[in-house]
Specification:
about 120 residues; mainly alpha; Arc Repressor Mutant, subunit A
Length: about 120
């Protein structure tokens, strides 16, 4: 008879370490603490110079700023007085320039580059 391993209900598996996104073989840097003891957030070990992104236009940045605020394409189009299709086209162009797979990653990349403040 072979033994069967069963997970105990309510017990989580051990946590996996976060992947190193810096492209180097070294381990991720430990979190630093600010003066008040609150840990500062590291942006996945990626430094702005390591991101492969093309510059984006001011209008594309305006669209991304509204995406960061949680606006839908319909709300962005109303806010900027452009069509929903134009919003979609600008997001597609922006995601291509930033090599982002979705709108959230585009916002994260522009924030990491210092082009957008949240």
């Amino acid at each position: 008879m072979r033994s069967v391993r069963r997970r105990t209900k309510g017990v989580a598996p051990p946590a996996q370490p976060a992947p190193n996104l810096s492209g180097e073989g070294s381990a991720p840097e430990p979190a630093a603490s600010s003066a008040n003891g609150v840990p500062t957030i590291r942006l996945g070990g990626v430094k702005p110079g390591q991101l492969d992104a093309e510059p984006i236009t001011q209008r594309e940045l305006e669209v991304l700023a509204l995406v960061a605020e949680g606006y839908s394409n319909k709300l962005i189009s109303a806010e900027l007085s452009i069509s929903e299709r134009t919003v979609k086209n600008r997001l597609i162009a922006t995601m291509g320039k930033l090599r982002a797979s979705d709108r959230t990653r585009a916002v994260v990349t522009t924030t990491r580059l210092g082009w957008l403040e949240l």
